[in-house]
Write a structure and sequence with these properties.
3-stranded antiparallel β-sheet, two-stranded antiparallel ribbon, 7 helices, 179 residues, 10% strand, mainly alpha
């Protein structure tokens, strides 16, 4: 199972405050990016489900600029030494309907499964388009959340084998993304 990361940052949306405990340079960079993603989500989209907010923040922790583009390294907290996902494997439906689970404090499982779904979606152009479509729809009403069955349908747009492909993806070596 993936490692539980010590909490070194928190974003408080009601106050617009992000607090960060300094660590080594790489860890601090990752924490700052994670918390800034929360700020951007809240500012640009509004309220989002926790799986999305934490999954996208975990995803962008791995960003590094390289020449004329950026790369996003897979989050090593949720991979073994061969780059295979070792976090908690959940179905897409279970991840996007997990809002009550976050109150039970299964954080390692929830962070890892949320990251894995975002990393999978960001694998290709169609997935990125589907995620952008979801984000656009979520931002129409910044106070209410889109129902999980609608989110699933938006993510599945032009990807009818989404669920099966996600299961296969979780068994493969996770690759760097170039954006």
């Amino acid at each position: 199972m993936g490692r539980v990361k010590p909490s070194s940052g928190i974003y408080i949306p009601n106050n617009g405050i992000a607090l960060i405990k300094l660590a080594d340079l790489d860890r601090t960079r990752r924490i700052v990016i994670h918390e800034v993603v929360h700020v951007l989500n809240h500012t640009m989209i509004g309220r989002t489900p926790t799986w999305f907010d934490e999954g996208i923040a975990e995803y962008f922790e791995g960003i590094n600029p390289e020449m004329n583009f950026s790369v996003i390294h897979p989050n090593k907290d949720w991979l073994n030494e061969k780059g295979i996902f070792i976090g908690h494997k959940k179905t897409i439906s279970a991840i996007i309907s997990s809002s009550n689970d976050w109150q039970r404090r299964n954080y390692s499982q929830l962070y890892s499964s949320s990251w894995s779904l975002i990393h999978y979606i960001m694998e290709d152009e169609q997935g990125r388009k589907n995620l952008a479509l979801y984000m656009e729809n979520e931002s129409f009403n910044s106070c209410d959340l889109i129902e999980s069955n609608i989110i699933h349908a938006l993510l599945r747009s032009n990807k009818p084998d989404l669920d099966r492909a996600f299961d296969i993806f979780l068994l493969a070596k996770q690759e760097i993304h170039r954006i």
